[in-house]
Structures are given as structure tokens and as C-alpha cells.
Design a protein that fits this description.
mainly alpha, 8 helices, about 70% helix
Length: about 200
């Protein structure tokens, strides 16, 4: 990490720390949403950047975890510290079941399969109104914000989300070197499969 990167990270950290004091509720909401999308992006980096697999349905698992956590909290009254791990486990289980057959595909076939997964999940959420409440969603979800005296709920939530995002970014899995080495066998196989699937068909006689 260069000196410029360290300065940039320090500036971002300082902005997050002082945001609950000076920023409005609207700005805090945007920062919270940015942190949530940042966590989802880290997961996509693991899949596309390190594993070298194309995925256009990553939002389906992101949304699945969010809805499972929200439903467990609103229907069963569970605390977010309980619902979030359960939601992560549910999304991981579905990803495993779907990934077993889908990852046998290569190139643009894999991309189309993951795209279809995202479309199907969106249709289910919109049409299964009794569970998801359709496009309107549902309210009453408890906050995971830690109690900090003199600070609003949005400010506490901001700290929690960005702390989790920072820990995720610095985790051993996200900084793993596997998949980054240009000469690694996994990367070479992925490139060969991608080139083969995208190459024009030729006829031999």
C-alpha cells in the first residue's frame, strides 16, 4: 500500500468518524448505503477478481440475506445479532446448491446462468407479496446499532456498517493471494475455458 493510499484511507476514516456530528440524516443514510454496497462489492471481488468467475447474479444472494434477516426479525422477533448470521448461512446454503451445477458452465454460458438467477429472484420478491410485501418491502426491522450516548441511530448504524466493511476488507480471505498470481493453475484454467467458450466454432474434415 502506497503513501497516497494511506492518506486516502485516513481521510475516509476521518470523514466517517465526524459525519454523525456534522452531516444531516440524509447524508448519513447515503453513507450507510455506501458501506452496505461496499461489503457486497468485496464479495463480488472475491468471486470475479480472485476466483476469475463471471457473476451477474450477485445481488440475488445479497438480497436473499437481507430478506431472511428482516423476516426473522419482524416475524420471530429475533435480535439482528442472531438474524444476520442465520441470513448469511441461508444465502451460503442457496449459493452452494445453485453453484454446484452452475459452475460447471464456462464463459458466456456461466454469465447468462447467473443473470437468470438474479432475474428469477427479483420476480419472486415482487410476486410473493405475502412474504416479501412486493415492491413496497416491509418495515419494523430492528437496528444493529451499538448504544453510544448522545448519538443518533443513523450515526451508530454508520459506525457499525463501516467497521464491518473494514474488517471484511482486511480479512485473510479477501487478501488471499490465491487467484492473483498470473501463472497460477486456477487462473490459467479459467482463461483457457473462457477462451474456448468464446472462440468461433471451426469444422474439421
Amino acid at each position: 500500500m502506497t503513501r497516497r493510499d494511506l492518506i486516502l484511507l485516513g481521510a475516509v476514516a476521518a470523514a466517517i468518524l465526524v459525519a454523525p456530528v456534522f452531516a444531516s440524516g440524509y447524508v448519513l443514510g447515503i453513507l450507510v448505503t455506501t458501506g452496505l454496497y461496499g461489503i457486497a462489492t468485496i464479495g463480488l471481488v472475491l468471486l470475479v477478481g480472485l476466483a476469475k468467475q463471471v457473476s451477474l447474479g450477485h445481488a440475488a444472494f445479497y438480497g436473499l440475506g437481507a430478506y431472511v434477516s428482516g423476516l426473522l426479525g419482524t416475524r420471530l422477533g429475533l435480535h439482528p445479532l442472531v438474524t444476520i448470521p442465520l441470513a448469511a448461512a441461508a444465502a451460503g446454503a442457496v449459493a452452494y446448491l445453485v453453484g454446484r451445477p452452475v459452475l460447471r458452465l464456462r464463459g458466456h454460458y456461466l454469465a447468462m446462468a447467473t443473470l437468470g438467477l438474479g432475474v428469477v429472484f427479483q420476480v419472486i420478491l415482487n410476486e410473493w407479496v405475502d412474504v416479501s410485501r412486493g415492491p413496497s418491502g416491509f418495515s419494523g426491522i430492528a437496528s444493529i446499532a451499538v448504544p453510544i450516548p448522545g448519538m443518533t441511530r443513523d450515526g451508530r448504524t454508520l459506525y457499525v456498517i463501516w467497521a464491518v466493511g473494514s474488517a471484511t476488507a482486511r480479512s485473510p480471505l479477501s487478501s488471499s493471494a490465491s487467484g492473483r498470481r498470473p501463472g497460477s493453475s486456477a487462473c490459467s484454467r479459467s482463461r483457457r475455458h473462457t477462451r474456448a467458450s468464446l472462440a468461433p466454432c471451426t469444422r474439421t474434415t
